[in-house]
Amino acid sequence: MFDYTHDQAQSHEVLRLVLIELQALNLPPNPIYFTLFYERALKRDASLTKDLDDAINAEAGLTIDRAQEIFDTHLLNGSLKEMGKAQTALLRVVRNLMMQMLTTGNEFSNYAASLGDFMRKIDRSDSIEDIRSLTAEIIDDSREIQRSTKDTSLQLTSAGDEINRLKEELETARRDARTDPLTGLANRRGLNELVQQRIQVYLQDKVPFCLILSDIDFFKRINDNYGHLVGDKILRFVARTLLANVKGQDTVVRFGGEEFAIVLPHTQFEGGIAVAQQLRSKIAGARLRLAESGRDLGGLTMSFGVACVHVSDTPDSILRRADDGLMQAKAQGRDQVVGQACRDEALSPEDL
């Protein structure tokens, strides 16, 4: 979570602004809405502000489901909490293991000193009774170190098993924190990290890439006419179709709601337009039918915006250009591909 250690005056002013805005939008001041608008008032996360503005301006408005999605993405991902727990547990096991090894090291050091003392005393002694007594002492010490070594070996084995288990949990938590549970695709958090990586590769090695942002046309009608369960089935269908029609290192991401993003490494602008057109055609050519009832849902279309990387890009700037292309495709009638070239010049497929 973000830091909220503000002074009293600042907190009161932010509170006042939040309550005014919630009232204006007729939204209840529950913890989800309140926290989102508190962050929005602080103006610390541009992508959170954009997501909120897009939701507010959308036809359905900022529903509690959409607010929860934004909250999970930007503020409190449950998988991140699990990851933190796994990290803490892993550190605890390793710390205990190190202490055990240090303790065992001291015992071996003491045993070595006992052996040295035994050898010196034996060398100087000419009494059978003394030798027997010294031998009994070193035998006892040997048995103790044998027991300690066995215990340490068992503890090391147990600690190793625990570390492996926690490592698997940590990897699972990290993967879940970047995965959309409905479609199994990477989520918005995973997209931001991937785009940042691709920009670094471009700056270092001049390997280009394109970013496609797409949106299911009239998705609200689907939810209104058939319900959210059917809407979820369509989201999974779109995810499968997009995945089936990209290749290599291409990555499909559920950006949020009915929006999907595709990252195309080693792809110039014209190639990105071609891939988007192919995906648009595949979606538009499908007929949807419910498997359980056989009910025909008709066709489906999507709009696409395409942007290629520029030397001055950040993840937000290339995403903004792709989103501008998507919005233009929507404004021009939907079921279209519109690209934003590196020089920020809007191009449609007919311009190529």
Summary tags:
352 residues; alpha+beta; Helix Hairpins; Alpha-Beta Plaits; 3 domains; six-stranded mixed β-sheet; 11 helices; 8 strands; extended; disordered C terminus
Question: Could you please describe the fold and organization of this structure?
Answer:
This protein is α+β, with helices and mostly antiparallel strands. It has helices at about 10-25, 30-40, 45-55, 65-75, 80-125, 130-175, 190-205, 220-225, 230-245, 270-285, 315-330; strands at about 210-215, 250-255, 260-265, 290, 295-300, 300-310, 335-340, 345. It has three domains: about 10-75, no CATH class; about 80-175, Orthogonal Bundle (Helix Hairpins); about 190-350, Alpha-Beta Plaits (2-Layer Sandwich), CATH 3.30.70.270. It is built from eleven helices and eight strands. The strands form two sheets. The protein has a six-stranded mixed beta sheet, with helices on both faces. The protein has a two-stranded antiparallel sheet with strand order 4-5. Helix 1 (about 10-25) packs across helix 2 (about 30-40), helix 5 (about 80-125) runs antiparallel to helix 6 (about 130-175) and helix 8 packs across helix 9 (about 230-245). The longest helix is centred in the middle third of the chain and has 50 residues, at about 130-175. The two termini are about 45 Å apart.
Task: Summarize the model shown.
The chain is built from eleven helices and eight strands. It is an alpha+beta fold and 352 residues long. Strands 2-3-1-6-7-8 form a six-stranded mixed β-sheet, with helices on both faces. Strands 4-5 form a two-stranded antiparallel ribbon.
